[in-house]
Amino acid sequence: MLKTEKLTKSFGGNIAVNAVDFQINQGEITAIIGPNGAGKTTFFNLISGLHRPTSGKIFLEGEDVTNKPSYEIAKMGIARTFQTTKLFAEATVMDNLIIGHRLRTKSGFWSAVIRSKRYRKEESECREKALQVLEFVGASELANRPVASISQEEQKRVAIALALATDPKLVLLDEPAAGINADETSGLAELIKKMKQAGLTICIIEHKMQMIMNLADRIMVLNQGTKIAEGTPAEISRNETVIEAYLGGTPHAQAH
Amino acid sequence: MELFFQQIVNGLVLGSIYSLVALGITLIYGIMQLPNFAHGHLYMLGAYVTFFMITHYGLSYWPAILFSVAALVVIGMLLERLVFRPLHHAPHINSMIASIGVMLFIEATARKMWGSDYRRLDSPYDGVIDLFGLTITEQRIIVILSAIALMIGLNLFLKRTVIGSTIEAMAQNREGAFLVGINANKVSLMTFAIASGLAAAAASLAAPINLVYPSMGAMVNLKAFVIIVLGGMGSIPGAVLGGYILGLAESISGTYINSEYKDLAAFALLVFILTVRPTGLFAKEAR
Amino acid sequence: MRSFPASKWVVPALLLVALAIPLLTDNSYYLNMLIMIFIWTIAVSGMNMIAGYAGQLSLAHAGFFGMGAYTLGLLMAKAQMSFLVSLVMAVALTGIVGAVVGMISLRLKGHYFAIFSLCMGVIISLVIEKWESLTEGVRGLLGIPIPKIGSFEFSTVTSQYYLILFFLVLAMFVNRQIVQSLVGRTFISIRNSEELAEALGINVMQSKILAFVHSTVLAGLAGALYAGYLRFLGPEVASIEHAFEMLLYLLVGGISTLWGPLVGTALVMAMMQLLQSWQDYRMIIFGPILVLIVMFLPHGIMGALARLKMKRQSVLPETIDNENRVIEKGTTDRRLAGGEIDA
Ligand SMILES: Nc1ncnc2c1ncn2[C@@H]1O[C@H](COP(=O)(O)OP(=O)(O)OP(=O)(O)O)[C@@H](O)[C@H]1O
Ligand SMILES: [Mg+2]
Fold this sequence. Notes:
Membrane topology (chain C): Multi-pass membrane protein
Transmembrane segments (chain C): 30-50, 57-77, 83-104, 111-128, 209-227, 247-271, 283-306
Number of helices of chain A: 11
Oligomer: heterotrimer
GO molecular function, one term (chain C): branched-chain amino acid transmembrane transporter activity
Bound molecules: adenosine-5'-triphosphate, magnesium ion
CATH architecture of the largest domain in chain A: 3-Layer(aba) Sandwich
Structural class of chain B: mainly alpha
Strand order of the largest sheet of chain A: 6-7-8-3-9-10
Helix content of chain A: 25-40%
Number of strands of chain B: 2
Largest interface: B-C, 49 and 45 residues
Number of domains of chain A: 2
Low-confidence stretches of chain B: none
Shape of chain B: globular
Strand content of chain A: 15-25%
Protein name (chain C): Branched-chain amino acid transport system permease protein
Helix content of chain B: over 70%
Radius of gyration of chain A: 19 Å
Organism (chain C): Thermoflavimicrobium dichotomicum
CATH superfamily of the largest domain in chain A: P-loop containing nucleotide triphosphate hydrolases
Structural class of chain A: alpha/beta
Low-confidence stretches of chain A: 249-256
Strand content of chain B: under 5%
Mean pLDDT of chain B: 85
Radius of gyration of chain B: 19 Å
Largest sheet of chain B: 2 strands, antiparallel
Number of helices of chain B: 10
CATH topology of the largest domain in chain A: Rossmann fold
Distance between the termini of chain A: 30 Å
CATH class of the largest domain in chain A: Alpha Beta
Order of helices and strands of chain A: EEEHEEHEHHHHEHEHEEHHH
């Protein structure tokens, strides 16, 4: 579904992502793991179009999307969440979510001023979408709460709902389970499985190994910007290089 | 040709003043992410203090400058303590708006206290020097040399003292430096003191050449902003270099462009450069 | 989103009062003051669009006000064009210049944009002042004819009052429609986080330009009405001090609130009238007020009222500001104080 060729990004002299060849397969959950500063988020920033690659190419369903701006990538069906959720804390959950479906609407300035028929239709579509994704992530009761007043885990769910509101094919999740407890983590893992069952392709960055080993179909390991391994969870947990560079310990102690 | 060299000297004089003011703004920006719109008005206050010290209290030139610098250091520290420190954790745009409030207050106060007239400060050094066939007033030489001395002094302070090197580290690199464990409040207080002192010194040096009036700071302030945007906000070498470049450019173009439009040139330059390079001339790539 | 004042009758009542005032008094002193308040409210509401809702602090708006004023003034006085045509051209010109300036400057982030816009404002005011062959420079532009629509002359203060009230109501209506729509929400999402908005498929640059053009058009409209009312212009209409005053009105009333521009402009201008004898020195009082506002009332009067109301309905937790900062450390920096909860 998505493929990168020799994807590279350097900031000044610092190479954050180094010649990464990588593939995300339709309908799978692909995970990216690696130590802090390995370049995982930067990799997401590249494939979501937020950063321009220094060199290398990105293909989405065969089409070259290397230098497309972020908003076009989003329209083509890649949605993402951020490591910090970036939600608007002072607004309600619903107000945050409505904008998620904006990219599928066409109304401009004047149709909004006169509240044209199409505008009213599109606005109600946005509202329906927001309610629908909120229900999907199991947070319907939060609709009218200000984001600042809901828990960290609820915010993560809302951020995922926001990504889903864009009607994506591929969802990139950047550390969705960071800062939440074990119970909540397994709840979140359930949600991610549910997304897969709904036909979405998912790519996830996560430090919580147990969750990843259970969820992922395939894993890529990044270290200092370079891909050092790729394979199924079982393969990764046996891989010598990975254990040395990252897991640091016996494979099975980490995997389970 | 002689006219050309004359303009170079004038450009250096102008550049010296711009650099000193821009240095203060860039230091404050580097430390507090605050574009201090009131800085030019501190410059104006510095000129008035020197003016009154000489004309009303009979001080001679250099002691008056020293007094003015000391007075502005105190005012700068008060501003930091009363206005900008309390806003340090608020969104940055708030402290920027506060600096506009301070600016409006200082200018109105100056107008109320001293009127809007233009005042002339007679230079104690009104002789001329013959240098390679150029006649230059002594005051101009003094401005150029004092500015260089001040910049060298500032450089030594930034390089050789602990607090100085912390200020420099923080100004150049936003994060990181807080980890060194030096009291951040002390750093911002010192920064305001130094920046205000530099502004007072620049204004006092320029006072005998320019006139002294309440809105004298506004244009200098805007141009100093042009300079630090061009030089990269927070960059110390950028401020110095940018100051001299703008001073020279204005002075030289002044002979060729209608002087009515001279002030426009600086802003047009800024617009042009930001159009081509949205992060300034010397700034690092952001994305 | 809630509208504020919430009660249904407040807006119609206000409108009725505004319509009735000239019938109750023909004291031109008060009418004149209200007209000035209306004109500046239109300009400030433009500033609110870009600075408050889209989160990009622009200090160029006095310049655009001056541009609108001079365009109308010059077209009417020197090209003998009719009032309506001149008004349309003035608004169109500020919109076009706004689009060009926006395309260049809105790529700049945070402080760079504010400083750039400040310089743009200075450029516009310098051009007006120095281009004497066109604008008459500091001598001022005299002889703007009385605005006429059809055969009706707006020669009395009362007729001007209704003319300008009409445009104020129109501007506020359009602003309300925008703010409470997907378009306005798009602006707000950009203020919240450009990266998130971009990732949600929003063409951030295009939206920012739209917000900016809308805001310059409002400033230009206000300027044009000003020129048609006073029929005399000096270059100081475009001066940067006016941009700072607009910022003051906006912050006092409440940035990113619909009614903030009107409340702030009315309040501060009325206070300035009381301090008439101070004239040049009024900033001795208003400078510190600006500082105190950002320190203690960053959401302005309307923002504070809305928060109070929400707190009473206990929807908004006390700790919202602190929590907000912890959660979104990176984005609060760029954002202006304010919130659209009362929009
Ligand atoms: N915008 C940027 N400008 C400069 N350097 C950057 C930028 N973004 C990331 N980097 C650098 O690139 C490297 C990789 O960072 P990245 O955020 O991708 O790591 P990560 O794997 O996501 O780490 P973590 O697990 O902590 O989230 C780091 O050295 C970081 O400092
Ligand atoms: Mg990361």
